[in-house]
């Protein structure tokens, strides 16, 4: 069972998302909050009392008291096992884009279908990032100025140079936007094996998540 926390200041939206999420028998909404500060406070109380933390958080961006970006930054630091998905109206929302740098695992548009919502929650719970093709391209475009700096390029090459050939191959597939399931199918290996490879890639490179793997890949000048 995957526990999901909803953070949005619109009550009706939380109710609608709850119905959609719990249409999947493997998902349940365990906690809700109306702003970022309330979400952080709830998580701290859960931890203090020894109660289970949610596996995934669906986080709105614009909320009173504390916005979703600030909350995501705190949560990713204090509760690194929790995966946060940013809820936004448009995937070109520049404010929401900064959520990736705050530690979010990707984006979900608020008009997401029930099927795509379920897939996204399962994906991030499994360690995948959820990025639209446009957002992946934007990550690359925004990083190009840095990629031209030799010190950044050298650092990325050093990070990827620590990988075995198989790990390097998987890093390249991650940079293409493939999920763990898709990588497993491409390489004819088990999904559990892909998870172990991804974990080793992050450990060896010191990168935080799959988004940073994508950035390092393109900074290094690597090609698929």
TrEMBL record:
Residues where 4-aspartylphosphate occurs? Answer: 60
In the record, what terms sit under GO molecular function?
DNA binding
- Is Aminoacyl-tRNA synthetase tagged as a keyword? no
**Alphabetical keyword list:** DNA-binding, Phosphoprotein
**Pfam families with a match to the protein in the record:** GerE (PF00196), Response_reg (PF00072)
Q: Which SUPFAM superfamilies match?
A: C-terminal effector domain of the bipartite response regulators, CheY-like
Q: What is the name of the protein in this document?
A: DNA-binding response regulator
């Amino acid at each position: 069972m995957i526990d999901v926390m909803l953070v949005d200041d619109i009550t009706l939206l939380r109710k609608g998302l709850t119905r959609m999420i719990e249409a999947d028998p493997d998902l349940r909404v365990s906690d809700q909050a109306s702003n970022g500060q309330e979400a952080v406070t709830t998580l701290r109380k859960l931890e203090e009392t020894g109660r289970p933390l949610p596996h995934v958080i669906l986080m709105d961006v614009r909320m009173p008291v504390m916005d979703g970006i600030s909350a995501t930054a705190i949560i990713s630091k204090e509760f690194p096992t929790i995966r946060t998905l940013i809820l936004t109206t448009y995937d070109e929302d520049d404010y929401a884009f900064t959520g990736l740098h705050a530690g979010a695992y990707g984006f979900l548009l608020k008009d997401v279908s029930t099927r795509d919502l379920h897939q996204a929650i399962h994906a991030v719970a499994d360690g995948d990032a959820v990025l639209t093709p446009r957002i992946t391209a934007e990550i690359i475009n925004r990083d190009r100025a840095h990629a031209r700096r030799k010190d950044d390029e050298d650092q990325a090459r050093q990070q990827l140079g620590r990988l075995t050939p198989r790990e390097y191959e998987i890093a390249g597939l991650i940079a293409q936007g493939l999920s763990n399931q898709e990588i497993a199918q491409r390489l004819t290996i088990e999904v559990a094996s892909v998870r172990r490879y991804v974990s080793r890639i992050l450990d060896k490179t010191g990168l935080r998540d799959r988004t940073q793997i994508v950035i390092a890949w393109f900074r290094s000048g690597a090609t698929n």
